[in-house]
Write a structure and sequence with these properties.
globular; mainly beta; four-stranded antiparallel sheet; 2 domains; Methylamine Dehydrogenase, Chain H
């Protein structure tokens, strides 16, 4: 973390968010040159009367640097963290939670940037956006706005989908936080000014978005908006699911719409939009209600469809986020599809490389070192190139998320707060190996994604209970 401080009263953080630099030493991304022996450097600007204090935190490990977690699925949008599990045998996590808090109900996952955690919750007919101090768990600021508990066209499974589901996303350039409510409120908040709202648009009011249609063989379901927004250049992209465009991009500065996608599919019920490169072109992938959609982002071609792969699931329950590896995408869902498949994308379209009769209903897969992992009533490992099963093991239920650490381990967050540490196939190539498990941290389902950032593990359930475990003291 790099902190610039102007005098005694005002500070803001500058954070590294470049995927291209994610595996470099943090020192190579610092805005000024510095000596590794120096932890604090004082600068003077000739045109400023205040002193600028640069604090460089030494969050280096043998395997790399520690990352912020600024948006859905982490810095690289793929469930990878650039730090180790900090496991050295014995009890893991090493101590009880250092703090607990409650941020109201909803499945929205936390994001962590420097010394702040941001998340959302619903209570008393309002959504609440929280900034939490990661050291103490204390509320730094809270912003609220009127919002129903369910989307205005909500239908079915209200015991599971209540309050905000979408994960916030943070813009390091501006310090703005973007959130999306279940009722389609896209908000921009200024985290450098106590979360003051910068702009707002409601998709239903602006575009008269209709209820999702019935798809598959079973009943209609509409869970409101669940898909996390994605930052791209000067725009924030959201899956609106309108007849003007499935995807829409809005100016980060003022919320004005700047483009719409060629695809007009209704929105799906998935976790997030994922960036990828296809034959040199910047693109995004998302599971709409009917297709895996890959759309272009390059100037003059924004929103044009590169490829579509049909993927219709009962209830539109393609919840697990597509996982990207180079030009390949792994998608999975339960119900009538009950499969996991690899789709290779080129400018000429989509090609299915393999499919296997295994599934994830909720957990988004992670791809690591030639293998695909996910947790769905057990932990799975497949060969990424062929789809061949490698191993399966563990006892888990339907609700789970997982991340992979730089030392080749999987952190699993499942059931009603079950926290497990599992070896990848790099360390355990023939069988499932569980290193540690802590049961029943909470009492409600853990829909929100697990987060590891700067030696701290953040665990949240859909009732808004939030705990922090320190894995490594920096």
């Amino acid at each position: 973390m790099v902190v610039w401080e102007f005098g005694p009263h005002y500070s803001f953080d500058i954070f590294r968010q470049s995927n291209a630099r994610s595996n470099q030493d943090y020192r190579s991304t610092a805005p000024i040159s510095w000596s590794p022996r120096s932890e604090t450097i004082v600068l003077q600007h000739s045109y400023r009367t205040c002193r600028i204090l640069l604090v460089l935190s030494t969050c280096l490990s043998a395997t790399g640097t520690c990352d912020d977690w600024p948006h859905w699925r982490g810095l690289q949008h793929n469930g990878h963290v650039n730090e180790s599990s900090h496991f050295s045998g014995g009890t893991w996590p090493p101590t009880d939670a250092v703090w607990s808090n409650n941020v109201d109900s909803g499945g929205s996952g936390p994001v962590v940037v420097g010394d702040r955690l941001y998340t959302m919750g619903w209570k008393d007919d309002q959504d609440h956006v929280y900034a939490i101090d990661v050291q103490t768990g204390h509320e730094v600021w809270k912003q609220s706005y009127n919002c129903p508990r369910y989307g205005r066209h909500s239908d079915g499974d209200k015991g599971l989908y209540a309050g905000p589901s979408s994960c916030p996303t943070f813009d390091a350039d501006t310090g703005h936080l973007y959130t999306l409510s279940t009722d389609g409120d896209l908000n921009c908040w200024n985290t450098r000014n106590n979360g003051e709202r910068v702009w707002h648009v409601n998709f239903h009011e602006a575009y008269q978005v209709k209820q999702r249609p019935k798809v598959g063989r079973r009943r209609l379901r509409d869970y409101g908006y669940t898909t996390a927004p994605l930052l791209s250049g000067d725009a924030v992209i959201a899956e609106v699911g309108d007849d003007e465009g499935n995807l829409m991009a809005f100016s980060k500065k003022d919320g004005m719409r700047v483009w719409t996608s060629e695809s007009k599919d209704p929105a799906g019920h998935t976790g997030g939009i994922v960036p990828m490169i296809v034959d040199g072109l910047p693109c995004v992938a998302v599971l709409t209600i009917r297709n895996l959609l890959v759309a272009r982002l390059d100037k003059g071609h924004e929103g044009e469809t590169v490829a579509e792969f049909p993927w219709v699931t009962d209830f539109a329950n393609s919840i697990a986020t597509p996982t990207v590896q180079d030009n390949s995408i792994v998608i999975t869902s339960e119900y009538n599809q009950y499969a996991i498949t690899r789709i290779d994308i080129s400018r000429s379209g989509a090609k299915q490389t393999w499919t296997q009769p295994y599934a994830s209903g909720v957990c988004s897969p992670v791809i690591y070192s030639g293998h695909v992992y996910w947790c769905w009533r057990g932990m799975y490992c497949l060969d990424f190139e062929t789809g061949k099963p490698i191993w399966r093991g563990g006892r888990f239920n339907d609700t789970a998320s997982c991340i992979v650490t730089s030392d080749g381990r999987l952190i699993v967050w499942a059931r009603q707060g079950e926290l497990a540490l599992v070896e990848t196939a790099d360390r355990s190539p023939e069988t499932y190996t569980e290193l540690a498990k802590t049961p029943a941290i909470f009492k409600a389902d853990v829909w929100p994604h697990i987060v590891l950032s700067n030696g701290r593990l953040f665990c949240k359930d859909r009732d808004g209970n939030l705990k922090c475990f320190v894995l490594s003291k920096q």
